Amino acid sequence: MDAQWAVVTAAFLASAVEFVEAFTIVLVVGVTINWRSALAGTGAAILALAALVGVFGTTLVRAVPYEALRFAVGILLLLFGLKWLKKAILRYGGLKAMHDEEAIYEEHMAEMRARGEHHQRRIEPFGIATAFKSVLLEGLEVAFIVITFGSAANSIGSAIWGALAACVLVVLVGALVRAPLQRVPENALKFVVGIMLASFGTFWGGEGLGISWWHDDVFLLVLVAFYLAVSGLLVLWLRPYGTSKLAGAGMIAADPSADEVVS
Amino acid sequence: MNAVVRALKATYNFFAGDAILLSMTVIAFVMGLLLVHVVSAPNALVAAIFLGCIVGGLALTLGRELRGRERQR
Fold first, then answer.
1. Of the four listed, A74, A126, A248, B35, which is most buried by Cβ atoms within 10 Å?
2. Residues of chain A scoring pLDDT < 50
């Protein structure tokens, strides 16, 4: 009985870390792009995971080239993150006009209404891809945790319960923080998304390379602080050349990428 | 522009959209692989070079933006 509780607790704690990582990405995709894309990517990843677990069962640990997957997801997330971060730094450095979110939103909505579309219903490939990759990677990690912890103690069922409890807890906490997050200004949120994607991409890509990060998942926080500091320095570097000097010369016009999803 | 080129361009824009960021990220990963699997370099050194390449790419592309805008002035 004690051994079973030990498995439940270990699986709960280890899975909670992975669920938090996956949920963070789904949350930022949902808040910055739209929830339909975030949930579509998440749903597709869950289906893929279910298919993998259904086909391979406990041999999944040996069947999936996890290092290669982490490497590929790391590269893609890093590229996405750096793209967002570059635009955010240009905005905060004054080299690119800040989005006037309300005006852009109203204009966008009017155009969409004219075409008979609904903004919240539009599926964005970028949002789906980002949510899909994160949930698939972290979901696989949870599956590995359940299989390894459960097999070691000969109690897969206990490990599954531990992971399920962690999932429910993370989703509940996420649902609570969703509303306050949606009130954060769009520019600030996109800056944070760039930092998060770049940090996760660096972390997973580095692990895929074979780098053992100091204190494992805790190092993600160090990477977030690192990218924040670097971005702050880059903004300070650009600021003297920003709005004051270029605006007079008409260099900062309306943001040409305002209609882009990743802008 | 034919369909293949358009598809390639759309793929590039979707994943990177910036030649400097793409090149420096590829360099970071290639150097990391060489350092880990060929040279067996210390972990901290690989991490530092990996992060250095990524941040270097970001600084380079921002510098290019700055030069481009100043040239337009």
1. A74
2. 247-263
Report the percentage of chain B scoring pLDDT > 90: 64
- What value of ipTM does the predicted structure carry? 0.91
Of residues A75, A83, A249, nearest to B73 (C-beta): A249
pTM greater than the 0.80 cutoff: no
Q: Which residues of A touch B18 (CB under 8 A)?
A: 82-83, 86
B-proximal residues of A, 208-237, CB under 8 Å: 209-213, 226, 230, 234, 237
Q: Is B55 exposed, middle or buried (0-12, 13-18, 19+ CB in 10 A)?
A: buried
Nearest to A238 among B46, B57, B62 (CB): B62
Q: Work out the minimum CA distance from B51 to partner chain A, whole angstroms.
A: 8
